[in-house]
Amino acid sequence: MLTEQDLDEFAQYMQSGAMEQDFRDGCEHDRFYLLNLLEKFMDVADLADETATRLIFKGSLGALFPDKTARDAAAGEDQAQDGNPV
User: Rounded to 5 degrees, what are φ and ψ at 30?
Assistant: First the structure.
C-alpha cells in the first residue's frame, strides 16, 4: 500500500523538474516508463476522485436524513417479514 510519504515524494519528483529532466535525458525505454507511470497515476487519481465522492455522498445521506433512513430500513424489514419483496 502506498503511504502519504510515497505520494509526497512522487509529487516532489514532478514539482522539482526532476521528472522532466529524466524524460529529456532518458532513453526510449525510460521515456515510455515515465509516460506509462503518469498515465497510471492519472487513472488512479480519477478512481480516487470517484471513490471519495461515493464515500462522502454515501456518508452524508445518513447525516442529512437520519430519520428517513431509519424509517426506510424499518419499512424494508416489515415488507420482508410480510413476504413481499423489498
Answer: -65, -40
For 22-77, write each residue's pLDDT tens digit. 999 999 999 999 999 999 999 999 999 999 999 988 867 666 666 655 556 556 65
Where helices occur in the chain by DSSP H, the ranges are 4-15, 18-25, 28-64, 66-81
Query: Distance between CA atoms of 30 and 13, rounded to whole angstroms?
Result: 15
CA 2 to chain CA mean position, Å: 13
On whether the pTM is more than 0.85, the answer is: no
Residue 13: what are its φ and ψ, rounded to 5°? -60, -40
How many residues in the chain? 86
Cell numbers linked to 22: 529524466
